[in-house]
Design a protein that fits this description.
Layout lengths: L1 E11 L2 E11 L4 E5 L6 H8 L6 E6 L2 E2 L5 H6 L1 E4 L12 H11 L4 H15 L14 H13 L5 E5 L7 H13 L3 E5 L3 H7 L2 E6 L2 E7 H5 L2 H6 L12
Parallel strand pairs: 3-8, 3-9, 6-7, 7-8
Antiparallel strand pairs: 1-2, 1-4, 4-5, 9-10
């Protein structure tokens, strides 16, 4: 479903942020993308969405991520941004959620049913007609996730999905991620959430892949994590 082959990217010439990485994510797999600040996690997401153009080859469902294919590719990708203010651009939660389904050709009736189903799934019915500028940080985060789920994408990308969430909503999001059958790539510093939701982890360090393997194996490896400026998940740390 997702394929990176020898991909590199530099914001400034001669200083690559992503340096020759290759990995493949099969359909339906849930993968955690971890690494210290500046490791390149958000850049990988932007390259996958075609927001940045680097060297090498990126494919989604066999389709190259190049300019002429971006509309087709983005129709199947849902991206939960790190900053919800960059994602919620309509006046109300309802208008944000229904925007993409309507633009992808759904009838108003079917789009409304989809919006209500997602809101119920997340326990967010009370937010439906709330104005976005009146939402708390946690409410806006949950609404942003709801907006992406209303698209019913084939691939879900999440950049720090648990940020700004209280423990209850964090648990709701974790349970939701575990229930979704789509291909998922989740970038996060919340290693406990990654452990709970991902079967595989890709560890980035200075733009390269330092490790790629079973989540349980990598997230229990204190030496590996500390060598790459990370710490064991709290649930695995000695008490």
């Amino acid at each position: 479903m997702i394929d990176f082959q020898n991909v590199s990217f530099a914001y400034e010439k001669g200083d690559p942020v992503i340096d020759g990485i290759s990995f493949t994510i099969p359909s339906g797999e849930s993968v955690g993308l971890i690494g210290a600040n500046g490791a390149g996690k958000s850049t990988v997401m932007k390259l996958l969405l075609g927001l940045l153009q680097g060297e090498g080859t990126i494919r989604v469902g066999g389709t190259p991520v190049i300019k002429e294919n971006l509309a087709k590719i983005r129709a199947g990708l849902g991206f939960v941004m790190q900053n919800s203010d960059n994602q919620m651009f309509m006046p109300t939660v309802y208008e944000d959620m229904i925007f993409a389904p309507l633009n992808y050709g759904l009838s108003r009736e079917d789009a409304d049913l989809r919006v209500d189903r997602v809101l119920t799934q997340l326990g967010l019915e009370k937010l439906k007609y709330r104005h976005n500028h009146k939402l708390s940080g946690g409410e806006k985060r949950m609404a942003a996730i709801a907006t992406i789920l209303a698209m019913e994408p084939q691939v879900i990308l999440m950049d720090e999905p648990s940020s700004a969430l209280d423990p209850r909503n964090r648990r709701i999001v974790i349970n939701l991620i575990r229930s979704l059958g789509q291909t998922k790539l989740i970038a996060s510093h919340d290693l406990d959430m990654i452990l709970d939701t991902c079967s595989r982890v890709i560890l980035l360090s200075e733009g390269r892949i330092a490790a790629d393997g079973p989540a349980e194996e990598i997230l229990r490896n204190r030496e590996l994590l500390e060598a790459n400026r990370l710490e064991l998940p709290l649930s695995l740390s000695p008490r």
